[in-house]
Design a protein that fits this description.
The protein has three helices and twelve strands, in the order αβββββαβαββββββ. The chain is mainly beta. The protein has one domain: Roll (Pnp Oxidase, Chain A), CATH 2.30.110. The chain is globular. The chain binds flavin-adenine dinucleotide. Flavin-adenine dinucleotide binds next to strand 3 and strand 5.
């Protein structure tokens, strides 16, 4: 399929869906209560200092809360946490997001909610926000991070569906790696 002009946002999403990503829950705190949303628009942007970016649609209920808190955590989900990915994306399940999807969590060093069972976590301080298009890009300086050495396979997202790693063989990169 080749479309050069006049495409709609659904077509754009469909094409971008060919880029496989992991799935995270971005969390923050409001009035002492944990808040979370499913996010795949995550990227590292700098090693020194360690910076990441998450892109949140300005209409998301959590976006003003991240602005207000000035901090967020990224929880990278394992494939066993698909139910949390659905719930934090607004699936009509019980308990819902108003009860933090019933997820077990604990505050990290910064107080941001870290989900039990997440295969990696990053606690970030917001050091910049770029309002662009219909999203806010939150640049977070990583203040603390954690990963489980032996962890389940990651949950993947591809063409609007979850994807599971069936073949866990990994192949060394021969080109020069970033950094
Ligand atoms: C795999 C995947 C990746 C995604 N990646 C991104 C991404 O990178 N960036 C992005 O912006 N979106 C992303 N999304 C979409 C995002 O997760 C959902 O659109 C979002 O969770 C919907 O929530 P909402 O609050 O915006 O809207 P709705 O679900 O329509 O919520 C409507 C209203 O319900 C209320 N509400 C919702 N949650 C709560 C709560 N916890 N407590 C109290 N009231 C509440 C609020 O009043 C809210 O306005 C992704 C979704 C999936 C499945």
């Amino acid at each position: 399929m080749s479309i050069e002009a006049g495409f709609d946002s659904d077509t754009f999403r469909k094409v971008m869906g060919h880029f496989v990503t992991g799935v995270t829950v971005v969390t923050t705190v409001e009035n002492g209560e944990p808040q979370g949303i499913t996010v795949n628009a995550l990227s590292s942007v700098s090693l020194e200092p360690p910076l990441v970016v998450v892109a949140l649609d300005r209409r998301r209920y959590i976006t003003p809360k991240v602005h207000a808190a000035g901090s967020f955590a990224v929880n990278v989900l394992g494939e066993h946490q698909q139910v949390l990915a659905d719930c934090f994306a607004g699936a009509p399940v019980e308990p819902g997001r108003e009860r933090f999807c019933g997820a077990a969590w604990q505050p990290g060093r910064s107080g941001m909610p870290l989900l039990e069972g997440a295969i990696a976590t990053l606690e970030c301080t917001v050091v910049g926000v770029h309002e662009i298009g219909d999203h806010d890009l939150f640049i977070g300086r990583v203040a603390a991070l954690h990963n489980e050495e032996h962890h389940p396979q990651p949950l993947l997202y591809y063409r609007r569906r979850y994807l599971r790693v069936e073949r866990s063989e990994s192949i060394a990169i021969e080109g020069r790696q970033e950094g």
